[in-house]
């Protein structure tokens, strides 16, 4: 006698229901696995295309700004104001000066300034390079202005010191002399000597025009021309311009001609006296 499978009122057998239930379970498991694979793939792609150094760099910048703000509030706020707006009869506004100007003033020791004078003298820097970078970053972030170049040191020296010499004589020699020895100006002011000045300081000085120096923007002197001027200055300073021995003050052909004339006249007088004594 044959047994027929029991059927539900709708005509569906128990075996069919179990098969459909297993099929649904498989589909759900497959969907969960596919979703997991997709999430893992998305995470891998995100990690690959959004590297961690960006977050680290943002954190480093924030720490640098906080350090710069602390240094500014401790050493600069009395003269330059809480919001870089300046203080009357004490210090000018720093809004718009930028990190290039603050770097020049701080790295050359001209700031902080003990008292207002006609000319701020170069002195040993009061801050470390790291502290100067922090103050520069704070001033740049809150006041804007011309930024210090990303290149530094010998990277700021051009490849054509000869062209740099021509540009220096046209634009700089009137105040700094032909070999960068400086000179006196009116009203107690002077053009400083360029001996021992770093490439970064020369470039930022041309970029910002501190005190009596004019600003040499990129329209007046291109970045390449500025670098050539730096190459020329370095070729005639730091002991590089005395192949014959004594620099004679480094004032150029005038001092050399004067010494030659004095020595020549003295020699002629000596020879004349010697001839007269023999006669």
Describe what you observe in this structure.
The chain has 279 residues and is mostly helical. Among the domains are: 59-148, Cytochrome Bc1 Complex, Chain D, domain 2 (Orthogonal Bundle); 149-239, Orthogonal Bundle (Cytochrome Bc1 Complex, Chain D, domain 2), CATH 1.10.760.10. It is built from 10 helices and 2 strands, in the order H-H-H-H-H-H-H-E-E-H-H-H. It has helices at residues 14-49, 53-75, 77-80, 98-107, 129-143, 161-171, 173-176, 199-208, 223-236, 253-278; strands at residues 183-184, 190-191. Strands 1-2 form a two-stranded antiparallel sheet. The chain is elongated, with a radius of gyration of 37 Å. The chain starts with 13 loop residues before the first helix and ends with a helix.
Index terms:
single chain; 279 residues; mainly alpha; Cytochrome Bc1 Complex, Chain D, domain 2; two-stranded antiparallel ribbon; 10 helices; elongated
- CATH top level of the domain at 149-239? Mainly Alpha
Q: In whole angstroms, how far apart are the ends?
A: 168 Å
By CATH, the architecture of the domain at 149-239 is named Orthogonal Bundle
- Enumerate the strands of the largest sheet in spatial order, edge to edge or round the barrel: 1-2
Q: Based on DSSP secondary structure assignment, what is the total number of beta strands? A: 2
Shape: elongated
Mean pLDDT: 84
Helix content: 40-55%
The chain-level structural class is mainly alpha
Task: Please work out how many helical segments DSSP would assign.
Answer: 10
Give a short account of the largest sheet: 2 strands, antiparallel
How would you spell out the order of helices and strands? Answer: HHHHHHHEEHHH
Which stretches are low in confidence, meaning pLDDT under 50 for 5 or more residues running?
none
The CATH superfamily label of the domain at 149-239 reads Cytochrome c-like domain
- Round the Cα radius of gyration to an integer and report it: 37 Å
């Amino acid at each position: 006698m044959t047994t027929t499978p029991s059927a539900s009122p709708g005509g569906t057998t128990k075996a069919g229901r179990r098969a459909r239930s297993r099929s649904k379970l498989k589909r759900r498991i497959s969907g969960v696995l596919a979703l997991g694979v997709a999430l893992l793939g998305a995470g891998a792609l995100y990690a690959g295309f959004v590297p961690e150094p960006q977050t680290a760099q943002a954190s480093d910048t924030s720490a640098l700004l906080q350090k710069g703000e602390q240094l500014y509030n401790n050493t600069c706020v009395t003269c330059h104001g809480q919001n870089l707006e300046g203080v009357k009869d004490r210090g000018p506004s720093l809004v718009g000066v930028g990190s290039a100007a603050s770097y020049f003033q701080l790295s050359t020791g001209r700031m902080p300034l003990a008292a207002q004078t006609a000319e701020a003298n170069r002195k040993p820097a009061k801050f470390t390079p790291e502290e100067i970078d922090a103050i520069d970053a704070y001033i740049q972030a809150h006041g804007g202005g011309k930024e210090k170049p990303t290149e530094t040191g010998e990277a700021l020296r051009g490849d054509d010191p000869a062209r740099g010499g021509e540009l220096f004589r046209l634009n700089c020699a009137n105040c700094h002399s032909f070999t960068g020895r400086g000179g006196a100006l009116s009203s107690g002011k002077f053009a400083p000597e360029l001996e021992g000045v770093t490439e970064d300081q020369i470039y930022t000085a041309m970029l910002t025009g501190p005190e009596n120096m004019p600003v040499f923007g990129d329209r007046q002197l291109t970045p390449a021309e500025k670098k050539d001027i730096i190459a020329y200055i370095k070729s005639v300073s730091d002991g590089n311009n005395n192949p014959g021995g004594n620099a004679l003050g480094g004032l150029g052909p005038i001092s050399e001609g004067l010494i030659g004339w004095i020595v020549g006249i003295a020699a002629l007088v000596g020879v004349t006296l010697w001839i007269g004594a023999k006669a």
